[in-house]
Amino acid sequence: MAITNFIAAIELGSSKIRGIAGTKKIDGSIQIHAYAEIPSSDSIKKGKVYNRDGTSLALKNIIKKLEKELGETIEKIYVGISGQSLRSEYNSISRSITSEDTKIDQELIDSLCDENLELKINDLDILSVEPQEYKIGNNLEINPVGVASEHIEGRYLNIVANSNVKESIEYCFKQAHIKIEDLLVTPLTTADIILSEKEKRAGCALIDFGADTTTISIYRDNILRFLTLIPLGGENITKDIISLQIDEDEAETIKLSIGSAWYDKKENDKEEEKAIHTLEDGRKVKIEDIQLAIEARSEEIVLNVWNQIKYSGYNDKLLAGLILTGGASKMNNLHRLIQEKTTIGQIRFAESPLISFHNSDKINGIDKTKYGILGLLNAGKENCCLIPITDKPGVLFDDKEVLITKEEERKKKEAQEEIERKKSKDEKIGENNKNPDKKGDNFFTKFTQKVAKDLFGNENYESEK
Question: 215 and which of 34, 44, 208, 363 could share a cystine (Cβ 3.0–4.6 Å)?
Fold first, then answer.
């Protein structure tokens, strides 16, 4: 059966382009109706469109697969935007209040936000704005409406990216004849289905270890405070294993099976140091060589993450610690490496999203690699199904003529039933008039007979005619 009410989203990942469609339920859960994915390593690099034609073709195929499962046409779609140049930029806007009434109102707050959006940054687009606080005198207010002051300073965290990132995405979707309903910042929508309100309030950092990039999103007091991407990810580790003359597919398997982000020689005896791994083609490779290659690159990524956290100024304010997600976070002993190289003690893996997703078999199960696309689906609001527009205004049903015919038949049936009821009633009245003395005589006959009996004692009295 065709599904006519759904939200559709697409994620442009460095390893795969993913598409999904689902419906939000009243309880906040989401029913997944369709899912499709296509490898994108030849079209997307570091989260940025590299091959426009290849990306456009992949988008067409994704939409075609989704529409086949839905049984309907997709009119528009929500698109996630990320990429190496994505980051946060701080900005502040000051305003003196010269009116007689110095009380701050919503109109003033809106004008400050509009002025911030008009900020021109060389070769950068503002994709999203996260208001921080408003400085009123020596106080910081989250919502200053109603506060009396002669001066206000609005502080904003602008999420920006190189202009060509957005332009390339819009070009590819235009070439694929797909309407973009909205461009959403993928790290923000991902955080919404992973981080609890308690974690955001206490202070935490969401680390998304992706294929080509690693994203760092820092929250404190329920507000996004810092966002940046590092151009290193799981693929870099895989390439280091490949450099040991190992096939790419086998290198990926080795990374996630016997590979370890933390390799301590002191904990390994001489026999383990001499251990050999036999490849699929029969060649042998020392496990120690594999482990050292993995650890070196993993350490580089973790140290870069830690440097960015310290740069944000929130390294000592993350009471809820680090939350790890992304495909590369599946690495063995990654948490041990982070504990060794940082001062963060509290670490958890995002094992499941906060929101319930039904029909997870549609996406071959929910895992860390799919949190990005699920977050985009959750962030969508508008129905993305193409609803046909009829030529005649006010016609809500395609089968109007059928409905009119059924209505006429109903009226005819009611009229026929009414005729039959009247006919039956007339027949009963006529029968009673012909046989007044029979059992079942009409009321008038019975009444006159009863009166005659009472007055004259004559049961056979007949009324005058």
Answer: 208
